[in-house]
Design a protein that fits this description.
single chain, mainly alpha, 6 helices, 0% strand
Length: 122
């Protein structure tokens, strides 16, 4: 293998690392700010997309990885951060969809005396 091929690989690796860092910071800031704003406007309970966005952003954010390494001695690499952030968002969306489906069943509404939101406005 020539020296130029090795140099090109190093350059590609550095570009990918920089791109990954920029994406992690972007995802972290957008989802943390967006999640906090959703929690602020919709309230902390019941769980909303804001919570899942917030925790996904915290998982993907480079500052979280740095803090875990510095204060906890835990290495949290970029691929693991990406997978955890993706899992939090996907499972959060699934949980909220499941909640909507369960609350739409008449048997559930009767058994737990749950009021439908559209009935409250009338």
């Amino acid at each position: 293998m020539s020296a130029s091929a090795t140099g090109q690989r190093q350059t590609v690796k550095q570009v990918l690392q920089i791109l990954g860092c920029v994406v992690a910071w972007g995802w972290g800031l957008v989802t943390i700010i967006g999640g906090l704003s959703l929690i602020t406007t919709l309230g902390p309970w019941p769980p909303t997309n804001g919570w899942f966005a917030l925790f996904s952003g915290l998982a993907a954010w480079s500052v979280t990885a740095w803090a875990l390494k510095r204060y906890g001695g835990v290495n949290f690499p970029g691929l693991a951060r990406f997978l955890v952030a993706l899992a939090i968002i996907l499972l959060g969306r699934l949980a909220l969809k499941w909640k909507a489906v369960v609350l739409s069943y008449p048997a559930f509404i009767d058994a737990f005396n749950v009021r439908k939101p559209e009935l409250d406005s009338k």
